[in-house]
Amino acid sequence: MYSSTSVLRGIACAALILAWCPSTRLFAAPGSSAAKDAAAEAPSRYGDVLYHTPPGWVEKEDERGVTITPPAPGASLFIMPVREFPDWRQFFDAVQKPSAGEQLVGRVPLTVKHDANGFDELYAGQVLKNSKGEQVFEWYGAAHKGQFIQVLYFRAQGLDHYRALHPALARFIQTLQFETSPADVGERVSG
């Protein structure tokens, strides 16, 4: 059972996540500085996600997906491979499950948006307390089309770290695009 102080703190933190990283402002408005910056550089692609790695962050791809880390330790952004799931919502909920030794303190409710490319975009956030009593801030995004889903998530240890990384994370989110590549369509139809 959580104390009332812990619940109130979690709700306040969840409200901060939503205020700092609103799910309703996912794409850079035409003419905004994020849109101009994004237009100046070619995006990276992993699965159905087109994105721009924040300056100074390091991108590494392996069989589990793409990990993008800031220069200072304590946070990571992950892009998982496209997966086929008849119940994509169940998969998205399972990805958000706290790890062993973590407790859920607060959650930003799921937001769903349908984009022009036919994807349902899912966004959520949560605050956890780890086994050391430290707060962990997580943001989740996903693109779902048919039975396919691709999940992204960001995890930061501590409020100060999250605040420091927020400008880069917000720019990353604003420049996200979901688009099925021609190669993926062929693989999905034949496989």
Helix and strand composition category: alpha+beta
Major sheet description:
8 strands, antiparallel
- The helix tally amounts to 5
Outline the low-pLDDT stretches: 1-32, 182-191
Count of DSSP E strands?
11
Report strand %. Answer: 35-45%
Return the string of H and E elements.
HHEEEEEEHEEEEHEH
Rg: 17 Å
Shape category: globular
What's the end-to-end separation, in Å? 46 Å
Mean pLDDT: 76
User: How much helix, percentage-wise, in residues?
Assistant: 25-40%
Brief summary:
With 191 residues, the chain is α+β, with helices and mostly antiparallel strands. Helices cover 30% and strands 36% of the residues.
Keywords:
single chain; disordered C terminus; 8-stranded antiparallel sheet; 191 residues; 5 helices; 3-stranded antiparallel sheet; disordered N terminus; 30% helix; globular; alpha+beta
Layout of helices and strands:
Elements lengths: L3 H17 L12 H8 L3 E3 L2 E3 L6 E5 L2 E5 L5 E5 L3 E2 L3 H8 L7 E12 L5 E10 L5 E11 L2 E10 L1 H16 L2 E2 L3 H9 L1
Antiparallel strand pairs: 1-2, 2-11, 3-4, 4-5, 5-10, 6-10, 7-8, 8-9, 9-10
Structure description:
- This protein starts with a helix and ends with a helix.
- With 191 residues, the protein is of the alpha+beta class.
- It is 30% helix and 36% strand.
- The radius of gyration is 17 Å and the shape is globular.
- The protein has helices spanning 4-20, 33-40, 88-95, 159-174, 182-190; strands at residues 44-46, 49-51, 58-62, 65-69, 75-79, 83-84, 103-114, 120-129, 135-145, 148-157, 177-178.
- It contains 5 helices and 11 strands.
- The strands form 2 sheets. Strands 3, 4, 5, 6, 7, 8, 9 and 10 form an 8-stranded antiparallel β-sheet that branches.
